[in-house]
Amino acid sequence: MSINWYPGHMKKTESLLKEQLQLVDLVLELLDARIPYSSSNPKLANLLQHKKRIVVLNKVDLADEHMNKLWQVYFQQQGLEVIQVNATRSGINRLVQESVDKVFKEKAAQLKARGRNSRPARVMVVGIPNVGKSTLINQLAGKGSAKTGDKPGVTRGKQWIRVHDRIELLDTPGILWPKFEDAATGIRLAQTGAIRDEIVDQQELAWNLLQTLQTHYPLLLESRYGGDVTQPLIDYIDSIGQARGCLLKAGEIDYQRIARILLEEFRSGKLGRITLEKPLDEVTA
Ligand code: G4P
Questions:
Q1: Is 211 in the pocket of ligand 1 (CB under 6 A)?
Q2: For the chain, which terminus, N or C, has the lower number of CB atoms within 10 Å?
């Protein structure tokens, strides 16, 4: 996450990704299920050209179940294979395997028609920082997988992980740079922790989040912080401050502390399962 996405860096990242893409049959594109729109990188479709992708909605344990379903349907309607995943939990290998089998079937048939032996699908994980790429790779590389080492000639320095018999996974994820298109997207990325806190004003993030939650998740707010959720934002912030004892010496409210609490409790899921974007209108606030 200590990456500054200046143009030179983006260019370098893009050319590295292009190199990696040449090695694989298909990609697992990780999206944060809480912000599928903001955590995507529209350039990926271009870079992939005819290569297939599977959309992996990750962190579904932190996201709203109903919204997970809506997003799944949304991507399916675009003809994409979609899976919902909590990369921190074991037991997802089979789901990934089935999905890869489905998508790779066509390519495997082509290989067979050309008289070539069937081989495992070569797969890589791509996504923006902090979306869960390493976690997913580690999970897939768990029991039942083995490092297969370099492939002579093409992949010097790259390790492949054999996942069951039918997937070879590149052990280095493809990194995508986050979107910088508009302020709302930047705010969503920072709220979920995809962009570093130091470069964004915490209070601005927290109050924006609180406003969204007042509109879309009032019951979750009420059960966590109590108070009258329908009161104006500034009054509700004060009421959270009082309830949580976020007070400075002079008895004034410690707004910075409330902001930190809100962001931490949202990111860790303590506030409940929350999705900040819905399909089609994309950003809910
Ligand atoms: P990256 O390689 O894409 O940069 O992401 P990484 O795997 O490092 O994951 C970033 C954080 O997200 C990690 O938390 C990881 O445990 C968490 N994470 C990944 N997948 C899931 C998921 O499906 N559900 C949940 N709840 N968490 C997930 P961390 O080590 O605590 O880092 P941080 O959050 O303090 O940055």
A1: no
A2: N
